[in-house]
Every structure is written in structure tokens, then in C-alpha cells.
Amino acid sequence: MEAVLWIVLGVVLAVAEIFTATLFLIMFAVGAFAAAGAAALGAPVAVQAVVFAAVSALSVLAARPVIRRHQQTAAESGDTPFGVEAIEGSTALVLERVDADKGMVKIDGELWSARAYDATQVLAPGERVQVIQVKGAVALVWRDVATPGELPEAER
């Protein structure tokens, strides 16, 4: 009967993890399933509790470094950035006037919707800008100090 209670606790924790998506409760679910195994083997309740605590703690200790490594940005981990991370910090060419409401830029040969990072800036076509941040499919840009003549050939 105790094994069933541990299994129910494990299932409840696993289902709760689906709603939190923190990868924290699932480790306690693993501990509960291990305690269910101990209960099925006839271990006393005190031993079941120790198995639950030990397996849960070991799960947290083993999984935490892996989770942290996967949560780091490419810049933090020293890897080559890709996707949106690679775009942030790059230069772009203004194709259509960019202000706080609308605009269009060319980043590495691709057209992007853009908005001025500083709402007071208005950027004219032909200006060089720097991508400060990407929100969804919109690049937030800032006027670059370089002149349009210094643009790389791919951006002209």
C-alpha cells in the first residue's frame, strides 16, 4: 500500500512539473518513484523516506549543472552565437525610415522589421545602425557612429 502512495506522489509531482516547467519537481518525482521501489521491496517507512530524500537530492545535484549549462547564452558559455544571439550586436543598413513605430533594415542580407531603440531617434534610409536587441521578429536598432561608406560589401 505504501508503494502505491509513493507512486501517486510521483505522478502528482510529474504532472505539477508540466505546469511549472522548472525541471525541479520532476527530480522529486524521481525520488518518489525510488521510494516506491523501496516500499515494494518491503523497506520500512523510515528507509523509504531516506531513499526519497537521497534520490531527490542526488537528482538535483546531478541535473543542476547540466540545466545551468543549457540555460547559458552562447556568449556566456564561450560558444559561437547563432540565431537571434548572432544578430544582436551586428550592424544593419536602414532600407526604410526607422522610428519608434516602424521601419525596415537589412541584416546580413536579410530584411527585418525594425524600431528605433531610442524612441527619439529617426533613422534615414542608407544609415548604418547597430542591432541592440531582437524582440520577436523586430530588431531594435541604434544609430551607429560609422558612415555609410564604411559598410561591408554584403550590406550595401
Automatic annotation (TrEMBL):
Cell location: Membrane
Molecular-function GO terms, alphabetical: peptidase activity
Record bears the keyword Membrane: yes
Pfam families found in the cross-reference section: NfeD (PF01957)
Keyword annotations of the record: Hydrolase, Membrane, Protease, Transmembrane, Transmembrane helix
Membrane topology of the entry: Multi-pass membrane protein
Bilayer-spanning residue ranges: 7-35, 41-63
Superkingdom per UniProt: Bacteria
Domain NfeD-like C-terminal: 85-143
InterPro entries the record matches: Membrane_assoc_protease, NA-bd_OB-fold, NfeD-like_C
Protein name: Activity regulator of membrane protease YbbK
